[in-house]
Amino acid sequence: xxxxxxxxxxxxxxxxxxxxxxxxxxxxxxxxxxxxxxxxxxxxxxxxxxxxxxxxxxxxxxxxxxxxxxxxxxxxxxxxxxxxxxxxxxxxxxxxxxxxxxxxxxxxxxxxxxxxxxxxxxxxxxxxxxxxxxxxxxxxxxxxxxxxxxxxxxxxxxxxxxxxxxxxxxxxxxxxxxxxxxxxxxxxxxxxxxxxxxxxxxxxxxxxxxxxxxxxxxxxxxxxxxxxxxxxxxxxxxxxxxxxxxxxxxxxxxxxxxxxxxxxxxxxxxxxxxxxxxxxxxx
Length: 283
Ligand SMILES: Nc1ncnc2c1ncn2[C@@H]1O[C@H](COP(=O)(O)OP(=O)(O)O)[C@@H](O)[C@H]1O
Ligand SMILES: [Mg+2]
Prior knowledge:
Elements: H1 13-25, E1 29-32, H2 39-50, E2 54-58, H3 65-69, E3 70-72, H4 74-83, H5 85-90, E4 98-100, H6 102-108, E5 114-118, H7 126-130, H8 132-137, E6 139-142, E7 147-150, E8 156-161, H9 169-173, E9 176-179, H10 185-195, H11 201-216, H12 226-238, H13 266-281
Parallel strand pairs: 1-8, 1-9, 2-5, 5-8
Antiparallel strand pairs: 3-4, 6-7
Adenosine-5'-diphosphate binds near residues 35, 37 and 226.
């Protein structure tokens, strides 16, 4: 099984290499990078390209490792025992109240699957450690039913992180690692082409210029990312804004229209306006 890229996702050579290395090693691929650099979309793309089902587990601050394995639904069991009759007869078989988590679904699937554990750094520090054994051995024990669940097929595991927290060493040791670098202009151009085929090159050129200049501003709290650039371009097209309006020769420093798609907090907007103001004074 090899990932050779896809028509609607721009994968650099080193990213494809990392994906295939993780598949060959049968280890989870840990993907880090700024938000919006295509980490989540990578798992979706690989699943589609390899023709495998995708199972997604989106991690929140409250997510526990156990939820990925299974949960015991004690409330339903209690209710059934009170209702009696047909419901009451279910009560004695505890397996009726075991709800499979995403890992179990992946382990019991008929075919290999792609398993995405998205934004692992959202959870508390114990979370990755609690999954070590399951991801390593691809098995776990269900205490309620005294059953050992083993993976029929090893899933291809993607784990993403936005780098909000450090991950434990023991966890890192078991992963293959790839950092998605922020796309350079050329790669970004290809990403835009994928999303907006046939967009006027002049508009793309000007927009890219503004976008990369904006990212260079020192002290920006939140640099705009790929997904924000795509949103902005979509708006520019919808509003029919000509490339000249983004930056004209005589009015060198103008505030780009619809910059709310790019800058997401008032400090950054102020910082940017101040820079534009200063640039005008210096002309
Ligand atoms: N390499 C890429 N090829 C095509 N589209 C991309 C790429 N990287 C980012 N995008 C676009 O940016 C959006 C955000 O990507 P996403 O996977 O959600 O980022 P992340 O999970 O890293 O925050 C995607 O929906 C897609 O439209
Ligand atoms: Mg994501």
